[in-house]
Amino acid sequence: MTANISIGTDSHGKDVLVDVEELLATRLLVQGNSGSGKSHLLRRLLEESAAMVQQVVIDPEGDFVTLADAYGHVVIDAGDYNERDIVRMAGRIREHRASVVLSLDALELEAQMKCAATFLSTLFDAPRDHWYPALVVVDEAQMFAPVAAGDVSDEARRLSLAAMTNLMCRGRKRGLAGVIATQRLAKLAKNVAAEASNFLMGRTFLDIDMARAADLLGMERRQAEQIRDLERGRFLGLGPAIARRPVSVKIGAVQTGTRGGSHKLMPPPVAVAEDFQELLFARGQEDGPPPSPPRADPPPRPAEDIMRQLADAPQAKPAAPQLDFGENEPVVIAVLEDIVADMGDAAPGVAALYQDFGVRCRMKGLKTAPIDLPAFRRRFAMAQAGMADADDPRWRDALRAAEPVPEDMLAPFLLIARAAMEGRPCPDDHALARAYGTSSPGRVRRLIDYMEKLGVIVARTDFGGRRSIGVPGLGLSTAAAEG
């Protein structure tokens, strides 16, 4: 199953779709000179996917804070908080799956780099239970992953580059999908850019940037000239989440804008030179009224208020399913069975599976997933053993026998229990490994040994090397089979 969004149209007027689930696994690099429509593209991507996935925006210019008004993002003005506050809030963000915009425009460049490094590192180091899928959008990425230190200290560059490298190279396993945008590919560290598998290339003029863009798009150097001729708002897209061959995309309209809007032409006032000279060089009136005091900025919000908003964010979302409980359960059963059928030999994390579960439920008419993450873990383990219907009386004895079993071992135990109940051969190591989320035969052997020590199974191997497993809680045993 895919969750596609439209980012614009191709040269024939057909929608160009981005597969958000594929994007989470393969990351995205956006490149374009100033004025090419790069920020507009990011805004379109964020708006279209806001209801599908958690979003974290690193915003050095404060352009994306307006997402809060229309889509409920929490805005964190980094200039109002210290490092400890940033760490605490970043931890809360992963825990509560809140979409946020970290606005860095009040900070100097070096402070922006250190703040972003602290924030991204905390997201990266979150506990495993908080590894929910999230799009992490970094605008002006060349500032945070520069090729050379430039005007900032080596320490700031090292911290920022390490955080960006972790995001792009190792973030996928932690649910973090990097979407980075840059004005100059030549100024972006190569080990950061190289980890993206999807590309959207906008207008650029310098030969070195065109050459790198052409290499990433798989184009010949002589074809790179078309990158120079791209109009504003048009990009060349390529990648598993976009298209298998380069496609020209005209980015679609957006619902929100920047705080300042776009600058338009404004003719100067009509006046003769003598009038301007008098206005500019006139002496000040010493006895005139004193100038008005500068307008005071609003006081910064306490960090506790921001964290309280993050904690309340999940409750603020509309959580009422459109269907009643009696209609929810068939949807849950069908979605769980579909996920197990589509999973194959893959072993994604529970957080990613739960995100997939929520998307599939919405596709079937529910506003939100009707069960929480702990309940999903148990129901998914049952579904792996073919017990997706939790109310089926056939599974009551097996669930009762499974009570001493740790949560992560529930799926392989129920697989064994069902085989024993139906008199079928013992599941082989491959089936048990798939249910346990591993590919290691050694881990399967340790799993069986541990469950034997718990007293929930008894494993026997005959002289022919065939294994059978008894379940004392059921008083039954599987048939013998090759392990």
From TrEMBL:
Q: Compositionally biased, Pro residues: which spans?
A: 288-301
SUPFAM superfamilies for this protein: P-loop containing nucleoside triphosphate hydrolases
Source domain of life: Bacteria
**Cited CDD domains:** TrwB_TraG_TraD_VirD4
Region of interest (Disordered), residue spans: 283-304
Give residue ranges for domain Helicase HerA central.
10-74
Which InterPro entries does the record match to this protein?
A: ATPase_Atu1862_pred (IPR014588), HerA-like (IPR008571), HerA_central (IPR002789), P-loop_NTPase (IPR027417)
PANTHER family for the chain: HELICASE MJ1565-RELATED
The protein's name is Helicase HerA central domain-containing protein
